[in-house]
Amino acid sequence: MKSDIEIAQGAKMKPIIEIAQQLGLGEEDLELYGKYKAKISPEVWDKIKGNKDGKLVLVTAINPTAAGEGKSTVTVGLGQAMDKIGKKVSICLREPSLGPVFGIKGGAAGGGYSQVVPMEDINLHFTGDMHAITATNNLLSAAIDNHIHQGNELSIDVRRVLWKRAMDVNDRALRQIVVGLGGKTNGMPREDNFLITVASEIMAILCLAKDLMDLKERLGRIIVAYDLKNNPVRARDLKIQGAMTLLLKDAIKPNLVQTLENVPAFIHGGPFANIAHGCNSIMATQYALKLSDYVITEAGFGADLGAEKFFNIKCRYGELKPNAVVLVATLRALKMHGGSAKDVLDKENVDTLKRGLNNLEKQIENIGKFGVPVVVAINSFLTDTQEEVKIVESRCKELGVEVALCKVWEKGGPGGIQLAEKLVDILNTKESDFKVLYDESLSIKAKIDIIVKEIYGGIGVEYTPRAEKAIRELGEQNLDGLPICMAKTQYSLSDDPHKLGRPQGFKVTVGDVRISAGAGFIVVLTGEIMTMPGLPKVPSAEKIDINEKGEILGLF
Amino acid sequence: MKSDIEIAQGAKMKPIIEIAQQLGLGEEDLELYGKYKAKISPEVWDKIKGNKDGKLVLVTAINPTAAGEGKSTVTVGLGQAMDKIGKKVSICLREPSLGPVFGIKGGAAGGGYSQVVPMEDINLHFTGDMHAITATNNLLSAAIDNHIHQGNELSIDVRRVLWKRAMDVNDRALRQIVVGLGGKTNGMPREDNFLITVASEIMAILCLAKDLMDLKERLGRIIVAYDLKNNPVRARDLKIQGAMTLLLKDAIKPNLVQTLENVPAFIHGGPFANIAHGCNSIMATQYALKLSDYVITEAGFGADLGAEKFFNIKCRYGELKPNAVVLVATLRALKMHGGSAKDVLDKENVDTLKRGLNNLEKQIENIGKFGVPVVVAINSFLTDTQEEVKIVESRCKELGVEVALCKVWEKGGPGGIQLAEKLVDILNTKESDFKVLYDESLSIKAKIDIIVKEIYGGIGVEYTPRAEKAIRELGEQNLDGLPICMAKTQYSLSDDPHKLGRPQGFKVTVGDVRISAGAGFIVVLTGEIMTMPGLPKVPSAEKIDINEKGEILGLF
């Protein structure tokens, strides 16, 4: 089979104006970025806000393993399949980050015959959203250091500046730095850190903002530091939220592209899935719902993190009512959950597969706790055997859950017809009774406890002294009434990446707790979270090239 | 009179497709960025490269003073005036930098009724060129630090990494930093600096590249560090020039916008005018020349720096043959050169004006040394008196130089008809005999000597020990055969900003010499050059806002 980039470059893209027409939009509703990318003009909202919402479908997965699940590929392929069976459908995905493209080979725009295009553009500068977020993040940093330098009227404690600089590059040397060196004219020396742009709170804010004014309000709320009396200092105290909003005036507009089979794709916003909530923007999802009968979207990592945060954070703030969940699993990953080593996954192994099904089972249970109907999608690999597929099917039948084999990577939309038909059947017959899992006004510990016990299946939570102190302080400052954003390993239901399957009897250890007051959630850290990746020994950048005809080589 | 932004927001812009049609381009030749901005597709070059070149006119100025000269305004207004008298004209300007917009109020897109639009976009993210340059600059930085971290096969001396990180923000705290702290996983600790993006060598390279392959070649040539044996280490040694070129594949395409009077404006590239050459891109100028009968462009600072570098660097590499020069002066600035204080410039003062004319006189002489005909434009202020104007006119007559009063700030194109007509007359009657001032194969000191004596009117050059050593090393490594890029104060013909008028008998002191091997010039530093600005006590960012209708407030 051809490589992803060969398939993408062979795509017969339609002009984006035609894709927009499929959604009932005219050229005047678009801001074009070349022929195949557009942003939706903000004026469109007034025209469509009275439309009935389409049905919202979340694609999530079992806990990922080194074998890969292909959640984005299934999302794109399912959208294409829905289109093939005559449904008016859009997909909603996150925007990929530029930095990692030059690290390890591989983009983030689906795969095989289920990709979004133009994939090189989407993986490079796209419509400039990432760069706008970087600039906004760093304008705030400059304003903080300038305030300190110019007299520090707010008495910012230079040892407690929480706001970090950002850059969309994999650069370990920027993880920990000292700025302001070289004497009085260069500001006040202090320790600082760079995040990769997708880890910036600005990204999370952009994705949770309802509109431009809500964006400004949230930007103003960001807690950038503590002062010498231990009070939070916010971005609005620096009078910088207006300028920050201006820098994001275009970034906030949803982007429209298409899949290989010309299905409309909204690709907008891409927050980290650990220290943030890992979903595309609320605005893009709302536009898609008003313009389509079905919207297929996805969330980062497995259902214990991605779906939980999609429901408890994104749906809470966006007042979204998801109608169904597609839970993606691969036989290879299930076998790893059952104990298989990575190098024997190509061989049939019924026993480990059966053992590994407990991870799928728990994730099905979890979706049920939110009141949303679920269908399992087996993302097919060429090495899967019929015997193995039957095992998953019969277990799902026992659980009363529909399951479909999905071959969208290999075949595009036609490979997902079975899944699309089962999904439509569920949407027509099973009513979603969506509810969030906890009341945000509960104490921080009570909320964490619910997530750990209900979703992860743990027996309790332990807190380090650092976490205890952070929770106490947030409580004292009345900053604790926000949803929780768990930062946990994606590989296990527990906080130990090596405990695969369905671990039992474990406790989760919370190491630290932080607030993202602009985004509007409390970040709960379990274990080390890397917010600035590094490049490998031989970065893919060394193979990447462009020739005199403008052809791109070595990108994926 | 209205403010710049009020005038700009009231502009009757034509769709950029119509502006392109004025140049003979169709929609298929453009990559649209919304309705009013476009990039020219690279395929266009093959269609137009056989066209006859239009006439190239450089707008430059006397040495700037605190009173301002309005070079960009005259460039835009002259373009509009040429259009008014029926000429097929384009203008070529530099792209403004985003960072300074949030520092001190004021954009960089002309003024009054002679502006380029959409001016907010041009001053903010525009078509993303600055962000692409930032990303490219910092990918190279990441590659350098990653190489060191991963074993340092090239034996890069961490004390002699020349390449600096870049960001498009005014942020003094980033001027001098230490990176790579926090232990082994975070790379090797070393000192580093951030430049503002327009000061990055990538910007100069983009502006001097003839095409995509020349760009790649130049990027590969960048000297990023010295190794432990004192040999230069280049970007190509890190195998990173292909990925860097890919990041710039769109940035290299010229941008097309329009003036308030719908004249085509190519705004592309904006290198620093001190450590770089301060002109828009060669590619944009070449496209404009093939698509118009007249091209009006400008260069940074006064003619001693801007025009000298335009001729000796840009025209040399671009094989451009300028046909005429417009030398801009204001009576206010001439009075400052004659000794007036800033607060009495509004009053008539014939004596100081007469004294200050020697600056204009020297700049006229200098243009003559390049063999290019010159016309003087008096950029009119409402406080100018008739008596004063006559003094300038009669001195120009004595010198055999045409002069025209220019009211384009107040009146737009109609205010520049006199200038346009005189310019056309010169273009029709005086043949340009353009030549560069020196052979690039001369020694570094010989080239500096020519510039200082011929252009600045100095009597000699002194070198600090540091500069002597740098020149010796570049010679030993056969890296000295490049044009010179002088970094000198813009306020004086000498290297002392306080010596106004036409200083005599001075020597210039060279403090350091560096190579920009990718851009292809030797940077000669006289005095301190600031490559990362800071924010003022009350940054304009505090006043900038955007309201719920998307209206921008406080920007200019």
Automatic annotation (TrEMBL), chains A, B:
GO BP annotations, alphabetical order: tetrahydrofolate interconversion
GO molecular function: ATP binding; formate-tetrahydrofolate ligase activity
Pathway: One-carbon metabolism; tetrahydrofolate interconversion
Family: Belongs to the formate--tetrahydrofolate ligase family.
Pfam families attached to this UniProt entry: FTHFS
EC number: 6.3.4.3
Residues annotated for ATP binding in this entry: 65-72
Protein name: Formate--tetrahydrofolate ligase
Matches recorded under NCBIfam families: PRK13505.1
Keyword field contains Cell cycle: no
Keywords: ATP-binding, Ligase, Nucleotide-binding, One-carbon metabolism
Gene: fhs
Reactions catalysed, as given in the entry: (6S)-5,6,7,8-tetrahydrofolate + formate + ATP = (6R)-10-formyltetrahydrofolate + ADP + phosphate
